[in-house]
Amino acid sequence: MRYIVLVAGGSFNPVTNMHLRMFELARDALIKTGQFKVLGGIVSPVSDGYNKPGLLPSKHRIEMLKLALGRGSCSDGIPSSWIRLGTWEAIRSQWTPTRKVLDHYQRRIDAMLADTDEAQLNGPPDEKRSRIDEESDELAWLRSLVAKLRAKESQPDVRIMLLCGGDVLQSFAVKGVWQEEDMVSIVRDYGMVVLSRPGSDPHRFVHTFDLINPYERNIRLVTEWAVNDISSTLIRRTLQRNESVRYMLPDPVIDYIYRNGLYGSTASWPRLENFAD
Amino acid sequence: DAKLTDTVGCSAMPVAADPTIENVVLLACGSYNPVTNMHLRMFEVARDALRKSGRFRVLGGIISPVADAFGKEDLASAEHRLEMLRLALSPPAVAGPPAWIRLGKWEATRRRWTPTRQVLDRYQAAIDAELTGTEPCSTAGGSGGESCDETDAECIWLRKLVRRLKSTAGASAHGGDSADRQTAPLAARLMLLCGADLLASFARPGLWRTEDMVTIARDYGMVVLARSGFNPQKFIYECDAINPFEQNLVILSEWSCNDTSSSQIRRSLRRGESVRYLLPDSVIDYVYRHRLYGCRADYWHGQSSVSSDDAAEAAVSSSAAAAAVQRCSRGCQTRMTGSAMPAARIGKECRACGARSTRHVFLSSAAVDDQRGDAPDCLPQQQQHGDSRHDRHRQQSLQQDAASVAALPALSGPVRHRSHRESKS
After folding, report:
1. Which residue of A has its CA nearest to B36?
2. How far apart, in whole angstroms, are the C-alpha atoms of residue B159 and residue B182?
3. What domains does chain A contain, in order, with CATH numbers?
4. Which residue has the higher pLDDT, B2 or A155?
5. Most confident stretch, B123-137, B288-302, B383-397
6. Which among A145, A180, A171, A188 has a CA at the least distance from the CA of A42?
7. Which residues form the Cytidyltransferase-like domain (chain B) (predicted)?
8. Domains along chain B?
9. A40 to chain B: which residues are within 8 Å by CB?
10. Residue in B40, B93, B303 closest to A81 by CB
C-alpha cells in the first residue's frame, strides 16, 4: 500500500473552487484504485520570481489560500485538514521548476521516514532541533502524519504525486516549457493525477507523447464531470468588470479581494441599485 | 435579425428608444434537491447581465422550491430542502455581500403541486396590490389563482420594495426633469429565472398549459441560462407560443458552474465521493448530519488525513451496500425493516409516514436515479420523466380547475400519515 501526498503547483491568482475541487476529485480517484491511501495534499503557489504579468505578490496569494483552506483569520466553512499550504516555493525569490518542488517535499519525507536529517550528517544534534523548530507549517504537519503512520507500519511507502489539470499535461509538448529530464522524473519517480474536462482527450496525449508514454501507468487521468468553467482568468476578468464572482470561490477570499481592491475590483461587493435590504 | 453577444454572453435585446428601465424581481423554481452553487450563481449572473443590458433594474430575488407533493422519488422532504436553502442563503460569515435573495416557502409548504405560472401570479399579486394601492385580493388569471397572504414574508417584502420604488420615483419627479422625458407609470414585475433545460421542456406535450407558457413569456418574461445540450435561441425561434414575445426572453449563454447538477451531486454522495466546493460547506454539513441522499456520515466528519482516508475508503468501497438501503418514496430516511431488498416491492407501507405506492417504491437510490436518467434538477416536476402515471396526473391537474384537483389520488398528498381511505386509492 502506497501513501500519497498530492502536490499541486500553480499561480493561484486567485485560488478558486475549481482548484480546491481538484484535490477532492484526485483523492477519490486514487482511493478508488485500491492501491493508494492519500495522506494529505499540499498547495504550492508559485513565487513572484515567475514574473507573470498580473501575478499578485505572494503575500496576497498566500493569504487568500489560507482563507480558502479555512485556516485564515476570518474564514467560514469547515477547515480542510487534509490540504495544507506549502510556502517553500513561494518564498524563494527565483522561480522553481515543478520537479524541484516535488524533490524538496519527497526528500523531507524520506528524511522523516528514515528518522534522519540531512543536517545531522554534517552538524551536531542541536542543529537538528533548531531546524525542526523553524520548520514550516506544512512540514510540521507532514512530520506528525508520518509519525502516526510509522506507529502503524514499520516501513511505510510514502510518495509525492503531482496533481494538475489537463492543460499542464498538454504543456509537456510545448517546446521550452519543461526540461526533458524533469518530465521523465515526474512521470517515472512520482506519478501524476491529471484532472480533465469531458471532451478533452488526455488519453490520446499520453498515448502519442513518446517521452512519457512508457510510464503511462503512473499517469492517472480523472474526468471532472461536474464541469466547472471557473478559471482564475475568468475570475480576474469578472472582477475587473465589477461583476459578481460569488459562489466561484470561497466568500472569505472574495471579501479579501474587495477589501484590498485586488484585480481591479472596486472596494465593495456588487450591490443592487438602491434596493439592497 | 442577428443577436449581439457581448463578452459575458448576454444576448442583447433590440435596442429600443424607450428610456424606461424595467423593475424586476427574479423568481426561480425547482426541486433544489439539494441546492448547489450553480443555483446560487444563476442569480448573480442574471443580476449582473440584466443591469448591464441597461434595460432592467433588479430589485431582488426569490427561490421557490417545489412542494413534496411533487411525488418525485429521491426528493428530500421540504423541511430539509428549505433548511439547506436557508443555510446556503444565510447571512455570510464575512461582512459585505448583500443578502438579496429570499427563500419563498409558500409553494413548498402547500399540500399540492403548484404550476409555476401560479407561483408567479401569487407574488405578482402582492406587487400589483401595492402599486395600485389596493388591498390584496384574488388575482385574476385563471384557475388556481391565489390571493396573497398578508402574513407571507415574501409578499410583505415585495410590498416594501414597491413602496421604496414609489418613494424614489416620487423624489426624482420633483427634480428638474426635462419636459421631454416621458414618465411611464411605475411598474414592477417578476421574471422567471431558469436554465435552458426548463425552457426546452415547454415542448413536451402535456407538461405546460399553452396559456401558462404564453403568460410567462408575455407578462413576466424569462431569464434563461445556458445548459449544455440545449439551444435556447433555437428553441425560441421554433416555439410558436412564445416566439412573439422573444424580446422578453433574455438568454445568457456564457457562464461558469453551468453543469453542476443536483443529480450528479446525489450520485456522488451515494458513491461516497466528495461534493466539496460544488455547494456551500454548510449545506454539505447538513446533508451528512441528516444522512440525506444515501451518504455516509463518516466520510465528511472524519476529514483528518489518515483517519479520514480510512473513512473515505470505507465510503467508496461500501457505496454498493449504501445503495441497497431502502428508502420511502416520500424521501423519509427511515430504513425499512428487514433485510435490504434488491428489487422493488409492491404495496409496501412506510413506517414513518405511512406513504404507500403501488409502483417503483423502495428501489435503491441508485436504481431510482438510473431509471430516471439524468433529468436536470432545476426543472419543475413537469419535466421529470419516469413514472408515466405521474405524467398522467400532471396532465389531469393541468386541465382541471382547482376544485377537482382535490379528487386526485393519494400520490399527490403530503408527507404525513394518511387516512386509511386515501391510502387505498
Report:
1. A247
2. 25
3. 2-124+131-240 (3.40.50.620)
4. A155
5. B123-137
6. A145
7. 27-267
8. 22-135+152-169+185-259 (3.40.50.620)
9. 305
10. B303
Neighbours of A2 (CB within 10 A): 14
Any CB–CB contact under 8 A between B263 and chain A?
no
Tell me the three-class secondary structure of chain B, residue by residue: CCCCECCCCEECCCCCCCCCCEEEEEEEEECCCCCCHHHHHHHHHHHHHHHHHCCEEEEEEEEEECCHHHCCCCCCCHHHHHHHHHHHHCCCCCCCCCCCEEECCCCCCCCCCCCHHHHHHHHHHHHHHHHHCCCCCCCCCCCCCCCCCCCCHHHHHHHHHHHHHHHHHHHHHCCCCCCCCCCCCCCEEEEEEEEHHHHHHHHCCCCCCHHHHHHHHHHHCEEEECCCCCCHHHHHHHCCCCHHHHHHEEEECCCCCCCCCHHHHHHHHHCCCCCECCECHHHHHHHHHCCHHHCCHHHHHCCCHHHHHHHHHHHHHCHHHHHCCECCCCCCCCCCCCCCCCCCCCCCECCCCCCECCCCCCCEHHHHHHHHCCCCCCCCHHHCCCCHHHHHHHHHHHHCCHHHHCCCCHHHCCCCCCCHHHHCC
Which residue type sits at A51?
N
Closest chain B C-alpha to A192 CA, distance in angstroms? 19
Cβ-Cβ contacts under 8 Å, B92 against chain A: 76, 251
Helices A137-152 and B305-317, axial angle in degrees (round to 10): 60
**Which one-letter DSSP state was computed for residue A246?**
B
Are B158 and B189 in contact by the 8 Å Cβ rule? The answer is: no
pTM of the model: 0.75
- pLDDT tens string B222-277: 999 998 889 999 999 999 999 999 999 999 988 877 778 898 899 999 888 889 88
